[in-house]
Amino acid sequence: MCGIVGAIAQRPVAAILLEGLRRLEYRGYDSAGLAVLDESGRLDRRRELGKVARLAEAVAASPLPGTLGIAHTRWATHGEPATHNAHPHVSHDRCMLVHNGIIENHEELRREQLAAGYVFTSETDTEVVVHAIHAELDRGQSLIEAVRAATGRLRGAYALGVIDAADPEHLVAAREGSPLVIGVGFGEHFIASDVFALLPVTNRFIFLEEGDLAELTRDQVRIWDRAGQRVERPIKTSTVAAEATERGPYRHYMQKEIFEQPRAIADTLEGRLTGERVLPETFGNQASELFQGIRNVTIVACGTSFHAALVARYWMEAVAGLPCQVEVASEYRYRRHVVPEHALFVTISQSGETADTLAALRQAKASGYAATLAICNVPESSLVRESDLVFLTHAGPEIGVASTKAFTTQLVALLLLTIALGRFHRLDATTEARLVALLRALPGKIEDVLRLDETIAALAERFIDKQHALFLGRGEQYPIAMEGALKLKEISYIHAEAYAAGELKHGPLALIDEQMPVVAVAPNNALLEKLKSNLEEVRARGGQLVVFADFQVPLEEGEGVTVVRLPETDDLIDPLIFTIPLQLLAYHVAVLKGTDVDQPRNLAKSVTVE
Ligand code: G6P
């Protein structure tokens, strides 16, 4: 979603801002813009529909000198993707602003401002904010006071970067409901939606809290909390190397991230296992004591992270013996629900900034859960900071919009959680030892599956002229089928649906003909015979079957049936193994179709608004 970068420095900032925007491209956007204050006190701006590269061309053609500036990638919410709706927005050539979030009372403010003579040049909810700040500046307020007064009237979510043409010494930032960090340099300071944007210029960051207002000069950062009190926020050093966000020799980030999975899983396991056991401190020092009393688990997430939660439900109930409810965050947050006794509330999120997941967490905290746990890939994200317990997946930065390594590392985290909780319930030491051995062997197994890359690339050709695809699975492979369908639709734009194979006769069988590829996930488990009957039903109606099965599965290739063999593993970690070929399939279909694999149309990596 929208990305913000800002800089106040002693050197020209346009190149820094553009590089920051390039590094935020992964969040998803449809237009980009940049503004700087030049030496003569004139605000100059460039805005372009489409890619940051176009904006960079516009800046190259007509350079923007200046040492104070703000920049933005916009993911349209209010008003179509168009140059006039792109940020920065300006009021009376004096005040300029970039915004991430949604202003809920923008209509009311717009009416007031129209009556006061303000002219609107966009359909965005953002423009009311810049006019509101301008009105305060006009009353003689300083920039920081103007932003404080104006934001006091806003309802909704925002991260803001603001500059005033009459004040070349300040960049003001505000955070309420949307992420924003401050980059600390020497004689220069920056703001951005995440640390990745600023890694080329600094590795020292201040993570703003909700409700914070910050005033940046070249030499100083001053912060006030929601109550208007001056506060000191710690400076943290990021260990993410700037190169971690580079694509390297891979054609796409998604491809890189698929192939990074053995390493990401090994990193996620590091320091969490000891001998045949999961270390008790894996979920934090107080976790063991707390877990003893847990009788129930609720897991809430969005998108791919929700699919990880669905797999965990099978593990929690079958392996740990704990009742487990799973729900998408956007539903959970608006539903009246009964909080089970002694329940652990778990959120899963790659980014830790997904608006619905955060809102669900805040609601859960207020409603009597025994504790909250975040499984997250981004340290210092809002979700991490607001949860009682935290498990960080060490997948490294995930840039491709379609989540891959974040998903498999989330599954690893959930398996560890199943063990950590299960110990106090159904799980015995032998099963724990078996699981730990499987986890230790997992990176190697995934390496083996990745060797299927060429086979799957060849298979992908069969999908490129298709409009639809059906994915089938049973048991814990049902959520994996859902994840496979999601991957395919996200990046290849082929309509793909997943069904629990047992539901086939209750509707989707009507869709089956020669034009409908059916992808089935078929490990050698207790449900195999049932699944085979479902596959026969598809075959009898001319459906084109692609079956991912392990070597033990007695399935013959034949007319309309292709079987891709995976190394044999164990029921308990099969979901992780069978995810990989589905990721590869989606990836290769998208490459063959020539879509924008890493930044699929209309989608955002980090959904920071509802
Ligand atoms: C977006 C992304 C997905 C992601 C989902 C949840 O839709 O495109 O890849 O699974 O958000 O994001 P989170 O960061 O909370 O896991």
UniProtKB/TrEMBL annotation:
The keyword Repeat applies. It catalyses: D-fructose 6-phosphate + L-glutamine = D-glucosamine 6-phosphate + L-glutamate. GO terms for cellular component: cytosol. InterPro entries: GATase_2_dom, GFAT, GFAT_N, GlmS/AgaS_SIS, GlmS/FrlB_SIS, Ntn_hydrolases_N, SIS_dom, SIS_dom_sf. Its EC number is 2.6.1.16. Residues 2-219 form the Glutamine amidotransferase type-2 domain. It is found in: Cytoplasm. GO terms for biological process: amino sugar biosynthetic process; carbohydrate metabolic process; fructose 6-phosphate metabolic process; protein N-linked glycosylation; UDP-N-acetylglucosamine metabolic process. Its main location: cytoplasm. GO terms for molecular function: carbohydrate derivative binding; glutamine-fructose-6-phosphate transaminase (isomerizing) activity. Residues 287-429, 459-600 form the SIS domain. The active site is at C2, K605. PROSITE patterns: GATASE_TYPE_2 (PS51278), SIS (PS51464). Keywords: Aminotransferase, Cytoplasm, Glutamine amidotransferase, Repeat, Transferase. Homodimer. Catalyzes the first step in hexosamine metabolism, converting fructose-6P into glucosamine-6P using glutamine as a nitrogen source. HAMAP family: GlmS. This is Glutamine--fructose-6-phosphate aminotransferase [isomerizing].
